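Hi all, a correction to my earlier message: I attached the wrong file for DUF4190 domain-containing protein. Here's the right sequence:
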Amino acid sequence: MADHYPARPPVRTPSGLFPSGPPRPTYREPHRVRAAGLTAGLGAGVAWLLFLGLLGDDLRGYVWWTVLAGLVAWVVAGVLTRQGDRGVAAGVAIATGLAWSIAVVAVAVRWGMTGDWPLW
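and the right structure:
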């Protein structure tokens, strides 16, 4: 009996050096962080923290107003993250971190210069 089909090529086992099989799936973010949202959140966060920080008469008042405003801003950022506007939330969080860092540096400088803890 004669074969009517051509000979099959030998099956080679892949070595694992080169990828084989279908490509892996690519996952995309449903709500990407865009520059406009990040800038809007950063601007709103800076304005909020600046205006509330200016309510303090001295360093102690400035720091406590900044801490309070930052906590409120983080709650708002959490809500914005949950609702899908993560760019604005990231901007608000960056502004809060920056404002808290400035407050910490101001407290450290005053404490280092006077030797007295300025927050009590």
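Sorry for the mix-up. Helices lie at 35-53, 59-83, 86-114.
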